[in-house]
Every structure is written in structure tokens, then in C-alpha cells.
């Protein structure tokens, strides 16, 4: 069963179309990425999933049934914007939010304190929210989204403002939730996070889905015509700009990413580069999600 479904959902604000006939389904028990450039319609879509705004047209379903506000007790939500009461103390705030989801004060306090310990906020539980850095506030909101152990977790840019260490802490918590059978949907414009975490994605641009489905299958459709080369050599680099083998490439000095032309033999490329440089790595691989993103959004804009 799909945990989340959108069917032909549209939303406009005046003459601006934020979401345009968007359809996708999030399988239960996986991690699903809602991707797109800034302004693509990701937040507008999530706000409709949470019932904050209503679609102009189309259907939203949760847990296999049409949207009902009573379903929200089974969902954890982290908004893109800060949604905390600045003058409340951290642990008191978590208890308050836990009670809104049906937890007892004692249970919310115990679990909130444990989460604060895990996310290195234990020394800040008696501080007011306004005394915390933006990254710390983000972690408090993250705890609030998971505190009541929801069946679906919906996160809008969950890693925004976090350093790599704290990003890893939150990532590990999400993976733990998935292992427990929960469903996670999160929006982002950072392809590296999606590529490492997600089972399936929906890439939207100008409110429309331009790519949707299982991530492994999507990458397989784009073929294995990308080559990564690490080299040592002449000052003019690998000099591929005139090669009939190459569709496009990015040269970073001693490292180059190459897209081969259709039908090109990667062994010929290896011989060409090795004739001028010492090769330390030559790897034929699928394109990165970032490359797929750039290519797909570029075609959509065109």
C-alpha cells in the first residue's frame, strides 16, 4: 500500500501556478525524495499534504484513504520555516508538542530528554528557544517531528543550516525510523542527500513532475556512459574538447567527468587520455543524480 498519494493536484495563488496537475505515490516503509530547484513547488506540495492549504483540484490520500485531519496524529512534520515558540524552554516545548499528538506529559518529557541527549542538546533543555542557534532550533523541530513515533514523517528541507556532523546524526535517525517500517518523505534541492538516502524520487519543476519513480531504475535509464578520470599530466589537462568520443566534460584540474557520445568506446577514451597523462582512476559509471537533475530540468525549461 502507498502511504501518500497525490493525483492531479493543482494549486494556484492568483495567476501564479505553484503546483500543476502533480501526481505521485510514496510506497510504505521507504524514503522518498521530493526534488526540484528553488521555487519548483516542493513546499506548496507539502503544505497540501499536511492540510495547511487545500488543493484547487485533485486528490490527496494518506494511508490509502482521502485526506482527513484526524490522520495528522499519525504524521510527523518538520516545516521549512521555524515553527517554534521562541520564549518557551526547549524541553517544555517538546512536552507541549508531544501532548498535541496525544502523548502524556511524562512520556513526552522522557522521550524528549532522550532525544536531546542523542542530538547533543542535553545542556540546552532548560534554555529558551531564542537562545539557541539556528542549527540547534532545527534539531528541536526535528525531535518534535519524531517524538510521537509517527507512521509517516514529512520533512521540508530537514538538513538546512546543519553542519556535516549534525546532518549525519539526523540521517542516522531517519534510517532507524525506516528500519522500523515508517515512511519518510522529504524535500530538498541537495542531490547528494537524495542519492544516498532515497529509494524513490519525484523531480518537479515549475510545479510539474518531470521525473518520478524508483531511483535505481531512473539512473539505469540514463545508461552507463559517464566516465570519471583521475590523472596526472600536462598543464593543458586531458584536452578532450575536440574529441569525437565526448559529448561533454567537466575538468577540475587533476580530475575530469566525461559524458561519452552514443556508441563511443570507453577504451578508445582511455587510450586517448593515457597517451598524455598518468591515469590513477578510470571508472565507467551511471550519471550522478545531480547530472540527471541538471539535464532533466534543462529540458523541462527548454
Brief write-up:
The protein has 302 residues and is of the alpha/beta class.
Number of helices: 9
Strand order in the sheet with the most strands = 6-7-8-3-9-10
Let me know the number of strands.
Answer: 14
Give the SSE order as H and E letters.
EEEHEEEHHHEHEHEEHEEEHEH
**Rg on CA atoms, Å:** 23 Å
Distance between termini?
Answer: 36 Å
Question: Which CATH-level-2 architecture of the largest domain?
Answer: 3-Layer(aba) Sandwich
Taking the sheet with the most strands, its summary is: 6 strands, mixed
CATH superfamily of the largest domain: P-loop containing nucleotide triphosphate hydrolases
The domain count comes to: 2
Mean pLDDT: 91
Which CATH C-level class of the largest domain is it?
Alpha Beta
Please describe what this structure looks like:
The protein has 9 helices and 14 strands. By secondary structure, it is of the alpha/beta class. It is globular and about 70 Å long. It folds into 2 domains: 2-220, P-loop containing nucleotide triphosphate hydrolases (Rossmann fold); 224-285, 2-Layer Sandwich (Alpha-Beta Plaits), CATH 3.30.70. Strands 6-7-8-3-9-10 form a 6-stranded mixed beta sheet, with helices on both faces. A 4-stranded antiparallel beta sheet has the order 2-1-4-5, covered by helices on one side. The protein has a 4-stranded antiparallel beta sheet with strand order 12-13-11-14, with helices on one face. It has helices at 42-49, 90-100, 105-118, 134-146, 164-179, 191-197, 215-221, 266-274, 289-301, and strands at 2-13, 16-27, 31-35, 57-62, 65-66, 75-78, 152-156, 183-188, 200-205, 208-214, 226-233, 246-251, 255-260, 277-285.
Amino acid at each position: 500500500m502507498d502511504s501518500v498519494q497525490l493525483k492531479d493536484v493543482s494549486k494556484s495563488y492568483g495567476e501564479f501556478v505553484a503546483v500543476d496537475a502533480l501526481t505521485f505515490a510514496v510506497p510504505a516503509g521507504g524514503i522518498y525524495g521530493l526534488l526540484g530547484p528553488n521555487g519548483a513547488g516542493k513546499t506548496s506540495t507539502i503544505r497540501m499534504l499536511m492540510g495547511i492549504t487545500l488543493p484547487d483540484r485533485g486528490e490527496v490520500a494518506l494511508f490509502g484513504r482521502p485526506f482527513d485531519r484526524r490522520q495528522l496524529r499519525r504524521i510527523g512534520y518538520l516545516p521549512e520555516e521555524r515553527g517554534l515558540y521562541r520564549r518557551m524552554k526547549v524541553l517544555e516545548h517538546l512536552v507541549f508538542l508531544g501532548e498535541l499528538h496525544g502523548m502524556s506529559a511524562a512520556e513526552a518529557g522522557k522521550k524528549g530528554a532522550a532525544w536531546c541527549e542523542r542530538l547533543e542538546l542535553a545542556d540546552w533543555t532548560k534554555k529558551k528557544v531564542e537562545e539557541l542557534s539556528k542549527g540547534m532550533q532545527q534539531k528541536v523541530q526535528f525531535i518534535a517531528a519524531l517524538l510521537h513515533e509517527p507512521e509517516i514523517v514529512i520533512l521540508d528541507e530537514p538538513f538546512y543550516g546543519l553542519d556535516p556532523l549534525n546532518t549525519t546524526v539526523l540521517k542516522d535517525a531517519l534510517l532507524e525510523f525506516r528500519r522500523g517500517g515508517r515512511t519518510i518523505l522529504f524535500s530538498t534541492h541537495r542531490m547528494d542527500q537524495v542519492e544516498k538516502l532515497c529509494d524513490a524520487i519525484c523531480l518537479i519543476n515549475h510545479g510539474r513532475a518531470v521525473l518520478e519513480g524508483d531511483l535505481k531504475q531512473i539512473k539505469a535509464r540514463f545508461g552507463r556512459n559517464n566516465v570519471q578520470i583521475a590523472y596526472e599530466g600536462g598543464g593543458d589537462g586531458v584536452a578532450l574538447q575536440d574529441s569525437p568520443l565526448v559529448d561533454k566534460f567537466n575538468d577540475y584540474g587533476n580530475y575530469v567527468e566525461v559524458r561519452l557520445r552514443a556508441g563511443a568506446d570507453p577504451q578508445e577514451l582511455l587510450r586517448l587520455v593515457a597517451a598524455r597523462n598518468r591515469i590513477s582512476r578510470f571508472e565507467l559509471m551511471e550519471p550522478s543524480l545531480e547530472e540527471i537533475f541538471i539535464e532533466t530540468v534543462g529540458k523541462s525549461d527548454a
